[in-house]
Specification:
heterotrimer; A mainly alpha; B mainly alpha; C mainly alpha; A: mainly alpha; 4 helices; about 70% helix; B: mainly alpha; two-stranded antiparallel sheet
């Protein structure tokens, strides 16, 4: 079996730390809606690095990557259609929330 | 290929020297209670699931009969309203998680999947046994909660009622969480087994169609079940610590719970129906003596249903306050499932064309299945249409629709499998005459129970109501009568099979003349299924080859 | 050099290893969907209460959160190196790297507990006990309920992962694994990396997207 050199792990680790630092620094300066986009893109990049090199998807059989892709697709589906519901919900605008006795006791 | 060279390619073990080479059959290979309770043999674990699942069906059936008896009259008949509310919750929970989810995959999937793949066992036999005991623990917890008093929320546990109801919601949802763990264990096992345990030369497109159905089912179980687990655990935590995370009075959104709940519970319908479709694919080919009209169409539509089924959960929420945009998306996506289902129906029907049809009990169940599945499916398309759903939502129309799919689909699939694989599992033949008779009775009882419910729903009778106006009574009486007929027919079916189990005629290795791989084993498969890894040199539906070539 | 046990249902060691890996990946997929449920609640409520969520996120200590990110990333690195070392036949070094990873796991949990303690001192509790005066309203309450649910569930996974790493560490120290057979070590490592990946998403959601 072929072995990658330990240098590869060091490079991936340093890239991960660098990306985390970048994410941290970007969060200090505000870019409006792009805050979330930057943070999520960097998180996805880090996940890809961990999955490919630490979890060795790049060397495993493709079916293991397939599990990741199908799971990621379903996660996207669940997130997007649920958030889409909240975003596009115009029919019943959220009115003032009634204060019930129950709410007061909680 | 001539039949002479063909014989050499056949699945493993010629029966002539089977006993010396492969040892005793799986029922006699080891003796003693310990050898059963601690077995890792997939066939024995399948049988243990079989026993518990039958008890679950009986229990859920008793709940159903009590419910129907209560609805015989508009007033109190046998129970008070509180008991009634708990009873329909328990009926739903028992039938779904104790019976339908594990029924076909864990019993018949467990038994035949490794044999169909030419493997000695599943990839993780101990995980398989663990899955059984986790399931059993789930049963104990859930049944304990029932004795504790049970819940009155319905099997859907909708917030905010489930977080405020005074009944025993927490133990029941814990039981459901435990069932989920068992489901995931089985799903991991089946997926890995299908990928890594196929015998040499058994390519994906030579797999029996039941394997494709189990594979699609396992994908759903693996990736949808954790979301259910999370949603019910959040309900339990909410009750324990008054988190109020879904409470509108605290800024929460109860519709979000429904999103999470249905992300599992809609695909769960396909966990129930896909294995039944897989059974039917086997049955229709065997008893028509024909290869499927299109193998690829059935195999791919199993995967199609599994994946598209994930994108349809919102059609349960059209009137729940979900946005119109989402409702449109979910309405359209729901229609795609109908396309895949129709592909299967047409392919089954085309398979029978010019086939040599044998009217055995499993085949008769296939015909019932065909009718009920099409009828239930078409009404499903109807309720997935937003404008119509507004009228039918939460009425008996929906109850009738999903019972047509679940009972008409899953239960007939289960009963077809029970009869079809009976000779392989127990080495005996059931009485065909009684089988056909009980099958007719099951169908008649079923239609009588649920067809009136379509009319009730359309006339506006809401589901889960304890009482109703007198004008609905004649339909309710019909439905209750049908339920008792259905219950009686199922008891007769069980009796017929128990008689066969002890006194039935000895079966041959392949009583149906099937070309399926599982029928190539001896009458009762030996403990390790095969003496050595079989070399499978043909497809599972090669009915065009001569009989003697297919059965060495 | 031993090749490990071949279970009777398998034909050869390679298929057995592939089966174990695929089984672990399938389980990790399932775990990811478990956390997705909470991420869905977070995303939906953030859409409903964007400002309140941003304000609430700034009550979390960004520095401590970032330190914890560095800790978990480093622990993933040491776990990956440990697999690398056992493949080179250096089982003892592999075990020591696992020990380092477990210790980093303890540090992570320690930091997390410090944060919890600080929140409790200020009156930031999940659900009905939330009584922090500086930030009132539905949004912050829901944010912190989700914060405790998400980090709590993650912490449970950290503890489970540390347990697995401890198990394979003992195995590695006792030379139970060889360059030809170290599947349990690989599986434990995969699980630990998943714990890391989940934190990679929790961290920006709960700390970085602040007002």
């Amino acid at each position: 079996m072929r072995h990658a050199s330990s240098l590869r792990y060091v490079i991936v680790w340093l890239s991960l730390m660098g990306l985390a630092l970048l994410s941290f620094l970007l969060s200090g300066t505000h870019h409006g809606a792009f805050d979330i986009v930057f943070a999520l893109v960097i998180a996805l990049a880090k996940t890809t690095l961990v999955a490919l090199f630490f979890m060795e998807l790049i060397e495993h059989r493709f079916i293991n990557t397939m599990v990741v892709l199908v799971s990621a697709g379903l996660i996207t589906l669940l997130l997007s259609l649920t958030v889409a519901d909240i975003v596009t919900r115009h029919t019943f605008p959220r009115g003032p929330v009634p204060t019930t006795p129950q709410a007061a006791t909680r | 290929m001539t039949s002479g060279t063909y014989e050499a390619d056949l699945v493993g073990v010629p029966e002539t020297h089977a006993p010396t080479d492969v040892g005793l059959d799986y029922l006699r290979a080891d003796r003693g209670i310990r050898s059963w309770l601690l077995t890792t043999d997939h066939k024995r674990i399948g049988l243990m699931f079989y026993i518990v699942v039958i008890f679950a069906l009986i229990l859920g059936g008793i709940f159903a009969l009590l419910l129907r008896t209560e609805l015989l009259t508009p007033e109190r008949t046998v129970m008070d309203a509180v008991t009634y509310n708990r009873m329909f919750t328990l009926h739903g929970v028992t039938m779904i998680w104790l019976f339908m989810i594990p029924a076909i995959p864990n019993v018949f999937g467990n038994f035949v999947l490794p044999i169909m793949l030419g493997a000695k066992d599943l990839a993780f036999p101990r995980l398989n046994l663990a899955s059984f005991y986790v399931y059993l623990l789930g049963c104990v917890v859930t049944l304990g909660a029932m004795i504790w008093g049970g819940a009155d929320t319905g099997w859907t546990f909708y917030v905010p009622y489930s977080t405020t109801s005074q009944s025993a919601v927490v133990p029941i949802v814990l039981g459901i969480f435990i069932f989920g763990i068992s489901s995931i264990m089985t799903a991991v096992n089946f997926i890995v087994t299908t990928h890594t345990m196929r015998s040499a030369n058994l390519s994906w497109f030579r797999l029996p169609l039941f394997v494709w159905a189990l594979y699609g089912t396992s994908v759903i179980m693996l990736l949808a079940t954790p979301v259910l687990g999370l949603s019910v655990i959040v309900v339990a935590l909410d009750r324990a610590f008054q988190l109020g995370i879904f409470d509108p009075a605290l800024g929460g959104d109860p519709v979000l719970f429904q999103h999470l709940f249905w992300f599992y519970s809609h695909p769960a319908v396909y966990i129930m129906i896909l294995p039944a479709q897989g059974v039917m694919s086997e049955v229709v080919c065997t008893f028509s003596r024909r290869q499927p009209a299109s193998y690829g169409a059935i195999a791919m539509s199993s995967l199609g249903i599994a994946l598209v089924g994930f994108g349809t959960w919102g059609h349960h929420m059209f009137v729940a306050g979900m946005s119109e945009f989402d409702a449109n998306v979910f309405g359209v996506l729901s229609m795609f499932v109908a396309i895949f289902s129709a592909i299967k129906v047409f392919t089954w029907v085309a398979t029978m064309h010019r086939g040599s049809i044998h009217f055995n009990t499993p085949m008769l169940y296939f015909f019932w299945f065909l009718f009920l599945f099409v009828f239930g499916g078409m009404t499903g398309v109807a309720v997935a249409t937003e404008s119509l759903d507004v009228h039918w939502h939460d009425t008996y129309f929906v109850v009738a629709h999903f019972h047509f799919i679940m009972v008409g689909g899953t239960l007939t699939g289960f009963l077809a499998a029970v009869h079809y694989w009976f000779p392989k599992m127990f080495g005996r033949l059931y009485s065909e005459r009684m089988g056909l008779l009980t099958s007719f009775a099951v169908f008649t009882g079923f239609v009588l129970t649920f067809f009136p419910q379509f009319l009730l729903g359309n006339a506006g009778m809401p589901r889960r109501y304890y009482s109703y106006p007198a004008r609905y009574q004649w339909l309710n009486v019909l439905s209750t009568g049908g339920a008792w007929l259905l219950g009686g027919a199922l008891v007769l079916t069980l009796g017929n099979l128990l008689v066969a189990l002890f006194w039935g005629k000895r079966a041959t290795a392949n009583p149906w003349g099937s070309r399926g791989y599982e029928w190539m084993t001896p009458v009762l498969p030996p403990k390790t299924n095969f003496a050595s890894t079989p070399f499978i040199g043909r497809g599972p539906y090669d009915y065009d080859r001569p009989e003697e070539a297919a059965h060495a | 050099m031993h090749e490990g046990p071949l279970h009777p249902q398998f034909e050869d060691l390679e298929r057995q290893r592939d089966a174990a890996r695929l089984g672990m990946w399938a389980f990790l997929g399932s775990e990811a969907l478990l956390f997705t449920g909470l991420f869905v609640l977070y995303a939906a409520y953030r859409t409903l209460y964007p400002d309140a969520f941003a304000a609430a996120a700034s009550l979390n200590d960004r520095a401590l959160g970032t330190i914890n990110t560095f800790i978990l990333l480093t622990s993933s690195f040491t776990v990956a190196l440990s697999v690398h070392e056992v493949r080179l036949g250096r089982a003892r070094r592999s075990a020591l790297l696992l020990l380092a990873s477990i210790l980093l796991g303890f540090v992570f949990l320690g930091v997390k507990l410090t944060e919890y303690a600080e929140h409790f001192r200020e009156g930031i509790f999940p659900g009905p006990s939330y009584r922090y005066e500086g930030l009132r309203g539905f949004g912050p309450r829901i944010f912190f309920t989700l914060y405790f649910l998400m980090t709590g569930l993650h912490a449970l996974h950290v503890i489970a992962g540390m347990g697995m790493l401890a198990w394979v560490m003992v195995g590695a120290w006792q030379h139970r694994y060889s360059p030809l057979y170290h599947t349990p070590l690989e599986l434990g490592a995969l699980y630990w990396h998943l714990v890391d990946v989940i934190w990679i998403f929790l961290w920006p959601c709960l700390y970085l997207m602040h007002a």
